[in-house]
Design goal:
Layout lengths: L1 H44 L9 E5 L4 H17 L2 E8 L1 H11 L21 H22 L9 E7 L2 H12 L3 E6 L4 H7 L1 H9 L4 E5 L3 H4 L2
Length: 223
């Protein structure tokens, strides 16, 4: 009797598995066809998706970290056929110092708040000439700073004056860039507060993804 039950059970399991396999094969084919049809309909009705990283913004401060960021941006641009915008922001303190030096105020403070009463009068023409000179110097420096990989991509150089993080974010918004590649110093402690504030603000407030290229040197580790 036991042998009969085992024999019957084995036959039943074989029959169940045969019917099950056939059923699943038929169901899979039907499901795939339904999915293909729905995909064709959705594709025809959908708005074309924007391409990824059509433009890449790379802020540059002429450091080794910025050089790494440029090379990495070139690699991304090669993959996504992106254009690259290389931006250098001249801090306002630099222009202020240069203007006062042009006027002969060699001992005027380089940084810090200057009250209107203590600030010397600056002729508009002098300020304009100083800014033009600084921009021309920066453009020349940017051209020399670019890695050779940039020759294979559409590259635009920009030199602005102001607070770096503000001008970086402003450019990202106005130009609708797809990605910001930013070199950072990878510092900690006081150096982090001073040098890392620009990167932190850009990462927190940027309207697009931000890729930070961090590196640390022996000097940084001892900071």
């Amino acid at each position: 009797m036991a042998e009969d039950k085992d024999y019957f059970g084995e036959k039943l399991r074989l029959a169940e598995r045969a019917r099950e396999d056939a059923y699943f094969r038929q169901l899979d084919q039907a499901l795939i066809e339904q999915m293909r049809q729905k995909d064709r309909e959705a594709t025809a009705a959908a708005t074309p998706a924007p391409e990824m990283f059509t433009s890449i913004l790379v802020p540059v401060d002429f450091s080794m970290y910025a050089a790494d960021a440029l090379r990495y941006a070139a690699g991304i641009a090669a993959r996504f056929a992106s254009s690259i915008m290389v931006l250098h922001v001249i801090p306002r303190e630099t222009t202020t110092h240069a203007v006062y030096q042009r006027l002969g105020y060699r001992d005027f403070p380089f940084v810090g708040h200057v009250s209107p009463q203590s600030a010397p009068a600056v002729p508009p023409k002098v300020a304009e000439d100083v800014v033009v000179d600084l921009r021309e110097q920066a453009y020349t420096a940017l051209q020399a700073f670019l890695p050779t990989q940039m020759a294979h991509h559409a590259v635009e150089l920009r030199v602005l004056v102001g607070h770096p993080f503000e001008r970086i974010l402003e450019t990202a918004v106005h130009e609708k860039v797809g990605l910001i590649v930013l070199g950072t110093h990878g510092r900690t402690g006081l150096a982090h507060l001073i040098m890392g504030s620009v990167a932190e603000r850009v990462v927190r407030l940027a309207p697009c993804p931000v890729l930070t290229m961090q590196a640390s040197t022996t000097d940084d580790k001892g900071t």
